[in-house]
Each structure stands twice: as C-alpha cells, then as structure tokens.
Amino acid sequence: MHVRDGEIAPGRPAAPASAGGDDTPAARRFAYLHRELRTRIVRHRYPPGHRLDIDALAAEFRVSRTPLRSVFQRLAYEGLVVSRHGVPTTVTAVDTAGLRDSLAFRMRLAELIGDLSPRAVGAANRRRLEQARADAAALDPDRPDIDAFIGIDLELHEAVCALIGNGPLLLAYDQAYYRTARMWWLFLPRLDWAREVAVFTRELELQAEAAERGDVRALGFNTRNALSAVLHRLDALMGD
Q1: Using CA atoms, how far apart are residues 218 and 221, in angstroms rounded to an integer?
Q2: Whole-prediction pTM
Q3: Spatial separation of the C-alpha atoms in residues 6 and 27, rounded to whole Å
Q4: Secondary element (H or E) of residue 106
Q5: Cα–Cα distance between 49 and 127 in angstroms, integer?
Q6: Which pLDDT belongs to residue 236?
Q7: Which class is 16-91 in CATH?
Q8: Which of 43, 95, 196, 226 has the fewest Cβ atoms surrounding its Cβ within 10 A?
C-alpha cells in the first residue's frame, strides 16, 4: 500500500482528528500517513527507541520526504516521537509520570461526547462496535495477545471518534487516546489477563448496546466509566 504525492491509498480511513476538515489531496495524504505511523507506534511495530527512517518510509509510501517531515512534526507535538534537526526521529517511551493525568483528562473529555454536537449512530458504526465486541469475546483468556487487544481498542476508539461532531473536542480526545494507548504494553503483562479480557468484553457489550439504542451520551459515559476502572486497576501498578 502506498500514497503518491497528492493521493491517498485505498483502505481504512484516516483518523478523524488528522484531517481537520480539509479535503485537499495533500490533507488526505497527510491524514493517511499520520494515521498509519501512529497506529504502528501504538501497536509496537515501532517500539520505544525505534528510529524512523524517513528515506525508507518515503520509498514505502512513494512520497517525497516533505509530507513525512510534517507528519513527524505532528507526532512530536503529540509526544509520540522526538524529532530534532540533525538527530534521527525516535519513538518515545510511554510517559508513565504523566499517565494518570492523561487518563483523567480522557475521562473528562469522554463525558462531553454526548453533549457537544454528537453525530448520529449509523448502521455502519453499530456494525463496527458489534464486530469489536465479537473480537473481544474471541480473545483467548489463557493466551495473552496484547497486539490483538490493542487492535480492538483502536477500533473502539475510532468508532467513538466517528460520533464526535465538535472539532476541538475530537482533536483533544483523539490525541489524548494516543498519548495513553501504549500503556497496555507496560501493564497488561502485570495484570490478570483473563480478568482484563472479561472486563474489556463487557465494556464493548455496553458500547454495542448503547449504539443499538442510538445513545451517544451513554457511549461517552461508558467510555468515561471504563477509563475510571482502568485507572483504579493501574494505580497500584504505577505506584510500584
């Protein structure tokens, strides 16, 4: 899969917060590259310390270095990479010191999803959440698979983002997610995997039920409550 300058490759849509409402070819290309690199970072295709080779990425996506430099700048602003002149752009470690504050911020933003210009839950999003629920239920409680867990969490996040009609809220909510999503690589190995799968599956059941009712406000508060429960479980681990 590749993106030529001025074009966007077919496939999954770009993250909504990346597009910023601009539908030019350059904006679509930026959104796709930004989404793809963020996803690779969150799923540990590019783990902390990994150096992003701009020439290799330009060849992979068949673009010039210019749009990739812009994406690197955005990723640096979001705290996912360190990018300085003359130094290779490098994936950052998870900000464990600021993790609790970031999760609390996500909780407060989630409370606003149903209040600030929410979008209607369409049939496509209901199917998406139902599929995520089924995928979570299919996780093996006896065989930890962090990548699969995070992949489902990403689907849930994008389904929720599709319901946020307020632009500033969408941008803040999306960025807050990516600041914290990598925490699972640190903490899932130290938690009870079977219990986490059961809790995650129940969360997705509640989201699928809310989507079936068309209740965006409930979707937001379900997200808030799930984050509160996660924070409660992680507090002891972050204090070790």
Answers
A1: 5
A2: 0.87
A3: 8
A4: helix 99-111
A5: 37
A6: 75
A7: mainly alpha
A8: 95
pLDDT class of 87 with cuts at 50, 70, 90: confident
Beta bridge partners, 90, equal: 51, 82
Pairing of strands 87-91, 81-84: antiparallel
Per-residue pLDDT tens digits for 27-69 = 999 999 999 999 999 999 999 999 999 999 999 999 999 999 9
Tokens of 150: 């995070």
The CA-to-CA distance between both ends of the chain, in Å, stands at: 43
Amino acid letter at 195? R
In three-state secondary structure terms, 1 is coil
Task: Determine the pLDDT at residue 240.
Answer: 54
Burial annotation 183-194 (CB, 10 A radius, 16+ → b, else e): bbbbbbeebebe
CATH class of 99-238: mainly alpha
Distances (CA, A) of 148 to 37, 113, 137, 140: 18, 26, 12, 10
**Residue matched to tokens 């489902």:** 152
Three-state DSSP state, 97: coil
Task: With residue 88 as reference, give the H or E element that holds it.
Answer: strand 87-91
Query: Which part of the chain is CATH 1.10.10.10?
Result: 16-91
Share of the chain above pLDDT 70, in %: 90
